[in-house]
Design goal:
The structure is a single chain. The chain is an alpha+beta fold and 89 residues long. The protein has one domain. Helix 1 packs across helix 2 and helix 1 crosses helix 3. The longest helix has 12 residues. The N and C termini lie close together (9 Å). The model has no long low-confidence stretch (mean pLDDT 93).
């Protein structure tokens, strides 16, 4: 499967999400929801999130379920992006 979501592209989406004015005041669940919704490659209705930390969508060209309960803190940029790369590939 081609790597549509390169490390650089994921970092760009991460930086975009971090620029949103209220992102720091959101819960970890919502921070990740916003991030994965932006990373999702299909229509909004095909992205689903379940509490506490499960996200289902199209990533890297295929449907994937991401279990994020053990994800690093959202604002630990390097660890978080590396975790995302591993999780969607």
């Amino acid at each position: 499967m081609p790597d549509k979501n390169s490390h650089l592209m994921i970092e760009q989406i991460y930086n975009f999400v971090c620029m949103k004015p209220s992102i720091k005041s959101k819960s970890k669940y919502m921070q990740m929801y916003i991030f994965f919704e932006e990373l999702h490659e299909s229509t909004k209705d095909r992205f689903i999130a379940y509490k506490p930390f499960t996200y289902f969508g199209v990533f890297n060209g295929g449907e994937k379920k991401i279990y994020a309960d053990a994800a690093p803190e959202f604002f630990d940029k390097v660890k978080f992006i590396n975790w995302v790369v591993k999780s969607i590939n």
